[in-house]
Predict the 3D structure of the following.
Amino acid sequence: VSRGFDRLLATQEQYVEDFWRRSDVVVENIRPDRTQRTTVEIQQAVRFNLFHILQASARAEDAGVPAKGVTGRAYEGHYFWDTEIYVLPFLAYTSPRIARNLLAFRYSMLPQARARAKQLGHRGALFPWRTISGEEASAYYAAGTAQYHINADIMYALRKYVQATGDEQFLWECGAEMLVETARLWLDLGFYSERKQGKFCINAVTGPDEYNTVVNNNAYTNLMARENLRYAAKTVETLKSNRPDAYAELVETALELSEPKAWARAADNMYVPYDEGLKIIPQDDGFLDREPWDFQNTPSDRYPLLLFYHPLNIYRKQVIKQADVILALFLLGDTFSPEEKKRNFEFYDPLTTGDSSLSSCIEAIVAAQIGDTDKAVRYGMAALLMDLADVGGNVKDGCHIASMGGTWMMLTYGLAGMRDDDGTLAFWPRRAPEDNARLRF
Ligand code: IFM
């Protein structure tokens, strides 16, 4: 028995050592007056976050990464977009086999996603907002199923994975089919609106921000759907010229020859709201018309708002739960100029309550990218300490795995200025929080 234990211990040690060799982020010379924490504390918190992603994902074989990982029962172990948008980038760069497993798991749920689309009267496939086995498990459609962006999020993660690893085999074998079905869904969901100069509009959806639900033309959704449609059209084109065998298979099973052109046309004509006066992207068609939330008279113990106000009181006000346009600024970084990023960030940041733990890591990244170091550090520390310092007051229900993945992104994409737009790795560091602070990853 003891030899068995020794052997297990040795394999485990090797496994974990290997994880740190691939995945560690080392911080040096952090000025404690800025962060109120020593370098040692910050290093410990970084590793705490990464370790929990390891725990949550190491055996993700025919399973996803639950919102709470393996640390708590909140959300009943369900998988959300947290996996693809917040955790998968870290895995794609450090544990690509696991990233592939997660995408393969989504692929295995394609039959249920097709059935769900059909149930809602759509063509293509609609991945569930929250699930265990592929079926939609949301109890409340407005902050659940209406988050159609899940489709585009998964396809965004697919592209990130393929670009980071070069695993085109996976793209041909599984990705292409998911791309076809998700692009079909978008084309079916949207329409060319005469009232919007013939642009392709998508109505009655909920974006990432769950305080503005069932809205028309949520900018995040439209921008991400555009990427999804373009990637689908491009992949099918490439398949046609490079892999005629796989292309023939796709055509045989489902693809109509006219479809990729229709997807590209919808993408090229996608409506993206823009306000000429404020020179910002309105979060959705109605966002700027809503009555401002009375932040001044909202006591600090009335947050998160969703626990104290009826959803209807929240939905009709200009108040944001979590990064929405700001998330698009980060994910689609090369779509926006630095000035656009700054203007939009400065408009949306004060309206964002951060009532979701998925917000601060993203706000930290965009703040770092526009050179607002104070905010980058403030939001970055909130993400880093989300669970160790119980920032949201609910760690008893489990750790926030999305924020943990977001912490890795905050360090790499945010503070270290990493960019991988279109798969090209580059670094545009702005100002480090202090001159001799260092990050190694
Ligand atoms: O997926 C998130 C959602 O964006 C906000 N509420 C919690 C979910 C699970 O973490």
Notes: The chain has a mean pLDDT of 96. The beta strands are 26-28, 191-193, 199-201, 291-292, 317-318, 418-419, 426-427, 438-440. The two ends are 39 Å apart (CA to CA).
